[in-house]
Amino acid sequence: MTAYLAGQNTDFVKLSDKIRKLRNDQKFDSAMYYSDSMLLRARQEGSKKYIISAFSSKANIYHLTGDTKKAIDFYYKALKNCTDTSFNKQKIFIYNNLGIINFEQKNISLAKFFFKEEIKVKRNANMLKPLANSLLNLSSVHRSLKEYDSSAIVLSELSGILPYVKDSAIWSFYYNAFGMHYQLLYRQDSIPSLLDSAASNYNRALFIWNKTNNMAEAFRPLFNLGAIYQTKQEYGKALYNYLLALRVTDSLGLKEEKNKILGNLSELYFDLKDYKKAAETFRAYIELKDQLQAQEINAYAIQLDKQYQTERSKETIQKQNLEIAEQSLRIERQGKRIYLILFILVIIVLLTVLLIVYFGFKKRVNSRIEEAKRKFFSNVVHEIRTPLSMIQAPLKVLKSKHNDDDDRFNIEMAERNINRLNDLVNQMLSISKLDAVKYTLNETLGDLDAYLNQIVQGFVKAASDQNIVVHYSFNVTQKMVLFDKDAIEKIVGNLLSNAIKFTQAGGQVGIDVTTRDDENGVLLDMIVWDTGEGIPLSEQSKIFDRFFRSKQNSDKTKGAGIGLSLVKDLLELLRGEINVKSEPGKGATFTVKMMLNLPMEIRNDITGSETNSTTQEKPVILLVEDDDEILRFNSHYLRNNGFSVLTAKNGNEALLLIEKTLPDLMITDLMMPELDGMAMLKSIRSNENTNHIPAIVLSAKASGEARIAALNEGAQAHLTKPFLPDELLAIVKNQIDILRKRKLEFNEQIHQTEKSVEERYTGKEPYTQKLFKIIFQQLDNPELTVESLADLMATNRSHFQRKVKAMLGISPSELIRTIRLEKAKELLLKKQGNVTEIAYQTGFSSQSYFTKCFTQHFGVSPSQVSLK
Question: Contact, 626 vs 649, CB < 8 A?
Answer without folding.
Answer: yes
